[in-house]
Known about the structure:
heterodimer, A: 6-stranded mixed beta sheet, 5-stranded antiparallel beta sheet, about 0% helix, about 55% strand, B: mainly beta
Amino acid sequence: KQEVTQIPAALSVPEGENLVLNCSFTDSAIYNLQWFRQDPGKGLTSLLLIQSSQREQTSGRLNASLDKSSGRSTLYIAASQPGDSATYLCAQHGSSNTGKLIFGQGTTLQVKP
Amino acid sequence: EPEVTQTPSHQVTQMGQEVILRCVPISNHLYFYWYRQILGQKVEFLVSFYNNEISEKSEIFDDQFSVERPDGSNFTLKIRSTKLEDSAMYFCASLVAETQYFGPGTRLLVL
């Protein structure tokens, strides 16, 4: 059974700090991997898509990496801001690049001013 | 970013009643999905839909659930006889360039 795990479950950092969120997956035959942001009671906002042939993707202060051999992805947030406070979810494409997403449980980030 | 819309934003229903959740995917998208998130739990896949038919469904998606694309724009999820455990946030998503874009969700509360 394919599973996605995110550690830590929660993280609190002071404003300005660089941080790394971790995501691990059990299926090494991974297709694509997506990172999302979820604000409380809201929908999911897509942050980055890493295709299975790629090793990393960048968008602004965000950088996501993918290491299929170790079954890990990381989301690096540079110079964190209070507005970055949210839950960050990673999701693995389960059976194809058009197939279902398998989600981790998320890391809830709080950035303190 | 492209936008998926969902209605209603909130729905309260009595156990045993039928509910229909509506989604308007991004135009010209071909793949559509429903997911749900029970409070405090992971986002779970329900069903995917392509070319007017179900392409994959999870164990959760039993005979009480159905999906339909009644016209060229709407994509609906029907729960025939709701149970207490159906209370959750339901998300619709559509796919473009291998990225799934999610709607804001419908919060369903079954009493």
